[in-house]
Amino acid sequence: MPNKVKEAWKAGKAVVNGWLAIPNAFSAEMYSQCGWDSVTVDMQHGVQDYLSCVACFQGIAASGSGATPMVRVPWNEPGIVGKVLDAGAYGVICPMVNTPQEAANLVQYAKYPPAGTRSNGPIRAGAYGSAGGYQATANDEILVIPMIETKQAIENIEAILDVPGIDGIYIGPSDLSFSYGLTPKLDVEDPFILDIYEKLLKETSKRGIAAGLHNGTPEYANRMIKMGFKLVTIANEVGLMVAASKNAVKVARG
Amino acid sequence: MPNKVKEAWKAGKAVVNGWLAIPNAFSAEMYSQCGWDSVTVDMQHGVQDYLSCVACFQGIAASGSGATPMVRVPWNEPGIVGKVLDAGAYGVICPMVNTPQEAANLVQYAKYPPAGTRSNGPIRAGAYGSAGGYQATANDEILVIPMIETKQAIENIEAILDVPGIDGIYIGPSDLSFSYGLTPKLDVEDPFILDIYEKLLKETSKRGIAAGLHNGTPEYANRMIKMGFKLVTIANEVGLMVAASKNAVKVARG
Amino acid sequence: MPNKVKEAWKAGKAVVNGWLAIPNAFSAEMYSQCGWDSVTVDMQHGVQDYLSCVACFQGIAASGSGATPMVRVPWNEPGIVGKVLDAGAYGVICPMVNTPQEAANLVQYAKYPPAGTRSNGPIRAGAYGSAGGYQATANDEILVIPMIETKQAIENIEAILDVPGIDGIYIGPSDLSFSYGLTPKLDVEDPFILDIYEKLLKETSKRGIAAGLHNGTPEYANRMIKMGFKLVTIANEVGLMVAASKNAVKVARG
Amino acid sequence: MPNKVKEAWKAGKAVVNGWLAIPNAFSAEMYSQCGWDSVTVDMQHGVQDYLSCVACFQGIAASGSGATPMVRVPWNEPGIVGKVLDAGAYGVICPMVNTPQEAANLVQYAKYPPAGTRSNGPIRAGAYGSAGGYQATANDEILVIPMIETKQAIENIEAILDVPGIDGIYIGPSDLSFSYGLTPKLDVEDPFILDIYEKLLKETSKRGIAAGLHNGTPEYANRMIKMGFKLVTIANEVGLMVAASKNAVKVARG
Amino acid sequence: MPNKVKEAWKAGKAVVNGWLAIPNAFSAEMYSQCGWDSVTVDMQHGVQDYLSCVACFQGIAASGSGATPMVRVPWNEPGIVGKVLDAGAYGVICPMVNTPQEAANLVQYAKYPPAGTRSNGPIRAGAYGSAGGYQATANDEILVIPMIETKQAIENIEAILDVPGIDGIYIGPSDLSFSYGLTPKLDVEDPFILDIYEKLLKETSKRGIAAGLHNGTPEYANRMIKMGFKLVTIANEVGLMVAASKNAVKVARG
Amino acid sequence: MPNKVKEAWKAGKAVVNGWLAIPNAFSAEMYSQCGWDSVTVDMQHGVQDYLSCVACFQGIAASGSGATPMVRVPWNEPGIVGKVLDAGAYGVICPMVNTPQEAANLVQYAKYPPAGTRSNGPIRAGAYGSAGGYQATANDEILVIPMIETKQAIENIEAILDVPGIDGIYIGPSDLSFSYGLTPKLDVEDPFILDIYEKLLKETSKRGIAAGLHNGTPEYANRMIKMGFKLVTIANEVGLMVAASKNAVKVARG
To answer: Could you give all domains of chain A from N- to C-terminal order, each with its CATH number?
Structure first.
């Protein structure tokens, strides 16, 4: 299965990414049919763990939509990075990468030798490998995406982006605001934060890597694609469900 | 906990009912906070079984919303009717009740002696019973709601409604259309079906019992409340999620 | 593994039986180490379904206690009777057996040909069969135990007990009281009910089969053993936990 | 997705069918990549229930093998037949169909009006429907396959096969032997049973419907294809695993 | 929902705390109705992981008892601390905090900026936030409670307690004894250990923070409240169940 | 229950070890009856997490085979090492131990004081302890087995093996090859790698500790026993199932 995110990025295009917080394969399967280019299991803030991530990956695959499965790991820790890759993730988004060393660690956990120290044993991923063999292509195919979401990360941004093996970055707007002493929120209009976005777009673009952003609404996500972001997420599936449900109740009551 | 549906019906008011197809307590909990008067676990067409129903009931209760938990059982069978009531259902919606005998069977399964033959052992339900004791009030508190969704049921409607212990009916529009040789659908405009609705509203109203309807959209549900329905459901939680997601993808792509 | 209940009954002894309502193998495993002769998974009023029953059976076996696994099925239905036997039940307790025909149905569901029509495929049970083969001994080894818990069953008692293949009966005191218009309760002192117990003990004893009883307290259970009951259950594991917890809180508060 | 079994049968070819007893989506997914034309979740004798069946269906779909998902239901009961079809089964194998009435009941449960009384709500199945809509094609696409596995069924065979809507039959060799007073086994050589097979092949062939058989070994299955069977199953996945494991231990020990 | 533990501590009162080892929401729900002020999911030594913790939190909430949900994390690791807080924990008990640096790390993981580096995304916790918003009050509301259970921790106790953000400590008596070369046990009478308790009570009291203790029996727990402990736990739910069960079997046997 | 691995090693014998990747207790139970001396739950590359490990341990115990339960942890991290030991592991295999410090850390996490810092609370393990008490014998009974699978580990091998508390080593052939720039594979014939095996056998033998190896086929495993390995694993259960299934399909098709 081709990595749609990687292909889009090569073609200079943006992807619209789904986000799974509900630990259920049926929910994941239905959601994956909605047109997302990729669907990410959120193991950090979502109600997800490793086995629910595997179940969601199966739901994504079962949907037949070709959506690329990715994961946000709970933390920059080698055990879980290896496990989600073995389960078939085509991309790893890692929270709170604040220094070049942390970025280098992430790359090391996610890449087979000689680029890294990932252990061999792609239990589910290997079953779907290309003809040349999963291990031969994994280092190229799998996206390594640190989250840039703190003041410290912004201050270190050039060194972080220079770490070999980084394919893109993902911005967590609410943590970023929080770390600058602002109220945490998505879809920010604060010029201070928007300036940071511009800087990150420039620095990533300069290095031929992509920038992604978590958004609260599809309208804002669309604006961010136009601004230059190459991966946009809209809330998560439970957030969309809750918003639609509240509206449905209101309309039904009249 | 009061039965909101029963209270509303006593007051002549309509309730807006949620519908759970995703077998997950977290999803159920979040959904239950959206303003529904009652939330029904759909064990017939939803991806639900008995243990997921219990989990969803816990999600509904955990939400603190006071939404009344109900269930649609997969079939008119005494084992499962007893089990969902023991788990804490305040109402049982039963599919495909086509004759007075089937309606009487349903009542028998759902009521303690002498009204019925339900077996005693409200493992979860009893823990939340009123001061007078769960067993003393269950026959009054718990709603028995056969689904009227076939030509045969319509032909038997008066005898079905006359069965003692029936608190209301619930119409499945797509099965009803199907059984008359029409294309199965929700939110019907076919005058033939709408005439049946009118007849059912008249016959239930005459007997002081309520009529409920499954709807596809909140707008139609609102119209049906105005027409006289006392319980309206809008699709289910996964349907609302899918519709919202497809729209989000479209808007994000621009 | 020998059937401890059958062996005890042959020796004229009573067994102390555990009762599982929590659908969890760890809980079942710990509980099974407490000295019970047999442990019954309650699929009727317990929070149990088929897969949790299998998990509990594994917990019982894992405990190494040699406690005999039994099950109370949710209803007298051939599908579930076959499934729990395939999973390794050594005894089936079936609720609400009120007529000889219902008793004969139960026997039919639980026995291989020619005694019954149970389908062959003991997926888990067969793996632990005796040298002669599970299928060759199952009809003898597995206990068929209808519940006697209604006025109708009492009125039919001799004919029910005469059904070939019945190994014992199990009395549900609260349903029995309920069906006679009394308040449902365990550990009854009402002479009317106690007279029924005496009659059941006499009729079962006459036929060389055993009578069992569900009890609320171990003291009452002990008294019932002395009265002649050959299988006594004490509440269930969650009931014992709740009682112990309430007491612990009270003592800790002083 | 095309129904591979139906297509093969139309073309006069036999299918090799997998059989799932382990209630786990990962196991199902890996097994589904092994070349089976169809994979059947065994809810009767396998350690499976409704939700594990859904999970296995997702595993089958996630495998990308195009194997057609089918199910053996635990019993001829309308609730479960409807639920597994809603979950996406392309074929229903039903145990212990012994009379034309039982066969007609099965057809009724599995077909939408006017051919039957299946209720509308294909929660998972509908999401993968053809352009014309799942409901419009389901009655044609979904295979209804009663099991012929008792003396009584053999005696009624012509009338059973004449029931409209039957697409094939499936023989359970061990139950068939059992019901004739023989030792239950697979891969029988007893001429008496083989004669029955011949008769069933003749009667099905005459009516243009298919006959399937459960086998213990692939060698026997191959022979049965040559004999005329159009669907052959080989043990189940756990049986293959156990046999391979015992052999591996033996070889490793030397 | 108010934090009962925090309120009690403000008022100078002790709380009686429950402890969950069984990974099941039903068990947790029933146990939570027994009068505990708070209920802690034990992810270190209990049979619990992140998703079972979420399920238990839902069970606690569903009980309607108002018991405050807390967690003992398996280790002092930022990923899991963030996840349990997002799930709705009102307090984090962390094992084996032996140095001020480890205590400071724990505070950092558990607090939003500027007090710490917890990442924003309270998926379940946020849904129940106060009017002012969960993020605005979380740092104040959530209790950070390191376990003091080694010789090293005792030697560093003043520096540990001086770490800003520590709300209390929790003593693990068996590990504490173990680290001093004594036999590990609860409800110790060894004057050497009791002297340590006195010292810990004095040092915490001096700083206006609370001391908690794990107990084996409610009698000892009551004594410890009188000694000055502000949070006492009694064994866990499975321990109480096992003790009650062993006793029930003994009494039933006579 | 005796530790079969330890006993065999004391007697100078080799053990044949099973390997579980499927997160299911039924599958584990059936597999554990196949003759393995020990069965290891693979939490690194298997589709396993902590709760599935507990379930598999129950399956192993329920099998009654006496197979010794072990685990490969996902990473050298104290939280998970403690949890699997509390769950009843008799041996811990830890991936990627490359330095004496890492080996010493592993020992520290796995041993009670004074040999290490493992926290006391053997929730499931303690229930099966010897008469003298689980805590008194655990440090002796439980095997600590670092994986030697990198160039760095080979370079540090003598210092690693000299770390007190190491009972054996386990070689991961594919990672070992990978780290030397070779293609990752099992059952290697490359003399360079085989020389490393010889060296490891010599160094372990010299110190009276055992060497284990992961194998792809039972034939190779047998050869390795002859070469001196004291623990050999053959693929895993899902690998054996897949190989057997592919072969069955091929044979059935003819």
So the answer is: 4-253 (3.20.20.60)
Asked if the C-beta of E124 comes within 8 angstroms of chain A's C-beta atoms, the answer is yes
The pLDDT tens digits of the residues spanning D88-103 come to 999 999 999 999 999 9
Nearest 10 degrees: Cα torsion F132, F133, F138, F141? 40
Exposure string over D213-233, b if 16+ CB within 10 A, otherwise e = bbbbbbebbbbbbeebbbbbb
- Residue whose entry in the numeric block shows the structure tokens 């599958």: F27
Q: Of C44, C150, C179, which has the smallest distance from its Cβ to B121's Cβ?
A: C44
Q: Write the CB contacts of C12 (distance below 8 Å, at least 6 apart in sequence).
A: none
Angstroms from B80 CA to nearest CA on chain C: 8
Answer yes or no: do A119 and F175 touch at CB < 8 A. Answer: yes
E45 is catalytic: yes
User: Cβ distance F220 to F25 under 8 Å?
Assistant: no
Q: Are C225 and C12 in contact (CB under 8 A)?
A: no
Tokens found for residue D85 = 């079809």
What is the spatial distance between Cα C232 and Cα E28, in angstroms, rounded to a whole number?
A: 27
- How many Å apart are CA E233 and CA E185, to the nearest integer? 14
pLDDT attached to residue A128 = 73
E174 in contact with F at a CB cutoff of 8 Å? yes
Q: Does position E87 have pLDDT exceeding 90, yes or no?
A: yes
Residue of chain D whose alpha carbon sits nearest to that of B178: D113
pLDDT at res. E128: 74
Tell me the torsion sign for CA atoms A52, A57, A61, A67.
Answer: positive
Res F131 pLDDT > 60? no
Is F137 an interface residue toward E (CB < 8 Å)? no
- D113/B44 touch (CB, cutoff 8 Å), yes or no: no
3-state SS assignment for residue A10: helix
User: Is A254 within 8 Å of B227 (Cβ atoms)?
Assistant: no
What is the DSSP annotation of chain F? ---HHHHHHHTT--EEEEEE-S--HHHHHHHTTS--SEEEEETTTSS--HHHHHHHHHHHHHTTS-PEEEEE-SSS-HHHHHHHHHTT-SEEEES---SHHHHHHHHHHHS-TTT--PPS--TTGGGG--TT-HHHHHHHHSEEEEEE-SHHHHHTHHHHHTSTT--EEEE-HHHHHHHTTSPP-SS---HHHHHHHHHHHHHHHHTT-EEEEEESSHHHHHHHHHHT-SEEEES-HHHHHHHHHHHHHHHHH-
Chain mean pLDDT for chain C: 97
Is pLDDT at D132 greater than 70 in this prediction? no
pLDDT class for D129, splitting at 50, 70, 90? Answer: low
Percentage of chain A with pLDDT > 70? 98
Tokens of E219: 């009698």
Q: Which residues of E54-79 are buried (b: 16+ CB within 10 A; e: fewer)?
A: bbbbbbbbbbbbebbbbbbbbbbbbb
Q: What residues of C act catalytically?
A: 45
CA-CA distance, F157 to F98, in Å (whole number)? 8
